Amino acid sequence: MNAHRETKENRDAEVERYRTLLETPKEFKEGFGWTTVIGIFFCGLVMMPGGIYLGLMTGGNLSTAASWVTVILFMEIARRALQPLSRQNLVVLLHAAHVMMMGNLLFPGGPLAHLVYRAYLVGSDVVRDAGMLGAFPSWFAPPHDSAAVLERTFLHTDWIIPIAIMFFILLIGMIQKYTIGYFFFRLTSDVEQLPFPLAPIQAQGAMALAEADMSSTSDESKPRKAEYLKPGLDHLTKRKKSNRWKIFSLGAYLGIGFGVIQVGIPAVTGLFLAKPFYLIPQPFLDTTVLTEGLLPATPTGLTIDLGIIFLGFVLPFWAVMGTFAAIVLTAIINPILHYVGVLHTWKSGMDTVNTTFSNDIDFWLSFNIGAGLGIAIVCIYSTVRDFRRKLKEIRENPSTDGVREDIWAPPRKGRGDYPLWIALVIYLISAVGMVGLSLLLLPRTPGIIFFLFFFAFLYSPFISYVNARLLGISGQNVDIPYIKESAFLLSGAKGIDIWLAPIPVDNYGYQAQAFRVNELTGVRFWSLIKTDLVALPVLFILSLLFWQFIWHSDAIPSEVFPAAQINWELQAKKQVLLYSSTFIGPGEDPSEKRFEDTEFSKAIHPKIIGGGLFGILILYPLLTFFGLPIMLIYGMMRGFGQFPHIMILEVVGAMLGRFYFQKQYGSQDFLRMAPTLLAGYFTGVGLISMATIALRLIKAAVSGTPF
Asked: 651-688, pLDDT tens digit by residue?
């Protein structure tokens, strides 16, 4: 029994180490106020247009940079007004800025970006060549010959239904992330006590800003550890800057320096030269063709980014080592699979992207489907085991007053918790709303009805929990590839409507980590809900206004927006390829359209799926038997068959952190400093990005003047 207990303690030591990096505050405060409201409008009016232009012109993402710049600007204004913002105010302001900069590399600037893309898609050359012109439903986008599309304007009645559906989806998404996302936070953080190793990044970044020039006489600024105090000084002595602020500033300086090389020089030279000048290859240095003689069918290369090394400092060591093991195994397995004829699609001369895509079709797509299923089974098993262990501990060690501890009760008062049954009921109602909307838009066949209910009430909660647990253990996430596409094909649906409808397939596992971040900073959860209730309508309206102005001024995509011209065309080709698997052209017989004849079916290999599933199920008990950290298996899942380019420097960072910096500064101290350094670094790079966008906008304004 003692030996088993010792093995368990060793296995859980890595988890507990990250769980205690930051102490959870005992007091929670309101962070929403007029500062938050002003910040929402500032970010929407000032930052959003720059983010849209950056995404369309260069493919860059301004989201993180704009969020931190907003927080720093408001903090400095408040300090000079002798009204410093509290930690909770800064955290909620940061959350508001993230909401206002909603978007991704392909569709920046809020939800209306998707509608502009739809207007392009329905009349694109790709759709025309596939014979799908006029096949898109009016609830998705106006027809290609509609005045709304030809005149490039949202101020047309043809857009009423698509815009209304978009707003409904946005509202349901907000409701579900605060219901099912909250439920899984309570399960993974409060009940299972998972560490959420990446949660301290945002938490410590905001805490660093809040501690700048604050007096330690305030309870909120008192250091928790003696090492944060100068020897010989009482803890009531005022200090100008905390250690955390100094580390944050160091990261910002490093980010500014590297950002000038990585972002600034290409952006500035692009203003005057025909092509930007890159000191560092972007997005990565591709060596696949150079190494194909030694490692055929194996993508190789390196992403040169200082931030990746800092990320290696933060990620759990054994998770990174699992990724390293997967990189090595992939480099060994791929040439063997090519030699035996499994990776037969790969051809000499293929670059990283084409090599990875061809390998996915032949092997890794199916393997990762099976491995994803295996990791999900492991998560469910581990949760049931840990839950039973917790119940056993409660039975063996009842509380002193004789009342059994309720593991489902909120562990701390004043956090803003609400009953779990209310969260589940509201989620079920919202899921019914999404299913009802889809049924209004799609044919009500048995196959479609089954998969709608399957996704809304089984798969979405399932994958959300799996990812909440992965984030809680190793900071990673996982998805089952092509699950939605497979369901569409198996449902027997015909036509392209099934690909366009708002199918309720969502993953809210990330929200569990978001709640953990705000818990570490002492923010009441209701502050976040209030912020979203204000920010989402403002986001939707400003997104509509800015996209209307930009789209009406110039066609998108066009030579004016080169990144959109490349990325949107590539995206359209991929989507049309999927649509073609169920598309029924004029004069075609739907009964002759078989799944076996589609290109997608050629990438699904049941034997390989089974191999990936059983491989994970065998690996998990082996790790448990030898007492190795379970983070190892999650790291391996992330690395199999993927780009090694980013992960190489990540491994370097993990090695430096573990074997040099932790010995130099102490394990706990370094693990507390590393997230703050990383947050500062991204802030510095963000400042350079904002400066380059300002230069581009100035050039555009000057070029458009008549004199």
From this structure: 888 889 888 888 888 877 787 777 778 777 777 776 77
C-alpha separations of 442 from 115, 138, 454, 496, 577 in Å: 20, 13, 16, 10, 21
From the number of C-beta atoms within 10 Å of its C-beta (0-12, 13-18, 19+), residue 276 rates as middle
Instruction: Quote the pTM value.
Output: 0.70
Pair 101, 62: CB distance under 8 Å: yes
Say if residue 175's pLDDT is above 90: yes
**Any domain includes 19:** no
With CA atoms as reference, report the closest residue to 337 among 361, 357, 299, 363. 363
Within a domain: 622: yes
Q: Is residue 404 part of a domain?
A: no
In 237-307, the DSSP E strands lie at: 285-286, 301-302
């990189």: which residue's tokens? Answer: 327
Question: Could you tell me the CA-to-CA distances from 279 to 60, 110, 254, 258, 681 in Å, in that order?
Answer: 17, 32, 17, 11, 19
What gap in Å lies between CA 436 and CA 432, rounded to an integer?
6
Judge whether 405 lies within some domain.
no
| Structure confidence at residue 11 (pLDDT) | 43
**Phi first, then psi: what are they for 495, rounded to 5°?**
90, 180
599: containing domain: 30-216+241-396+423-700
**At CA 591, angle to CA 587 and CA 593, rounded to 5?**
80
Beta-strand relationship, 285-286 and 301-302: antiparallel
| Sign of the torsion formed by the C-alpha atoms of 528, 530, 535 and 541 | positive
pLDDT score at 537: 92
Identify the three-state secondary structure at position 61. Answer: coil
**Contact indicator for 493, 582 with CB cutoff of 8 Å:** yes
pLDDT band at 242 (very low <50, low <70, confident <90, very high): low
- SS3 for 503? coil
Q: Do residues 36 and 531 touch, judged by C-beta distance below 8 A?
A: yes
Question: What are the distances in angstroms from CA 77 to CA 47, 247, 252?
Answer: 17, 22, 19
Report which of 214, 170, 326, 391 is spatially closest to residue 646, judged by C-alpha positions.
326
Amino acid at 378: V
Name the one residue in this structure whose structure tokens are 């609830």.
Answer: 139
Lowest mean pLDDT among 208-212, 355-359, 393-397: 208-212
Check if the beta carbon of residue 632 is closer than 8 Å to that of residue 322.
yes
Least confident segment among 519-523, 535-539, 566-570: 566-570
Q: Could you give the 3-state DSSP secondary structure of residue 89?
A: helix
Q: Cα angle at 623 between 604 and 328, to 5 degrees?
A: 60
pLDDT range class, residue 16, cuts 50, 70, 90: low
Instruction: Supply angle C-alpha 496, 360, 367, rounded to 5.
Output: 105
Q: Is 301 in a helix, a strand, or coil?
A: strand
Cα 697 off chain centre by: 28
Number of domains in the chain: 1
Cβ contact 631:473 at 8 Å: yes
Query: Rounded to the nearest 10 degrees, what angle do helices 112-122 and 160-177 cross at?
Result: 140
Q: Work out the burial of residue 392: count CB atoms within 10 Å of its CB; fewer than 13 is exposed, 13-18 middle, 19 or more buried.
A: exposed
DSSP, residue by residue, 353-383: HHHHHHHIIIIIHHHHHHHHHHHHHHHHHHH
Contact between 154 and 163 under an 8 Å Cβ cutoff? The reply is yes
pLDDT tens-digit map of 193-234: 777 876 776 676 666 666 654 543 344 444 444 343 344 434
Main-chain dihedrals φ then ψ at residue 24, nearest 5 degrees: -70, 125
What is the residue type of 85?
L
Of 203, 27, 44, 34, the residue nearest 540 (C-alpha): 44
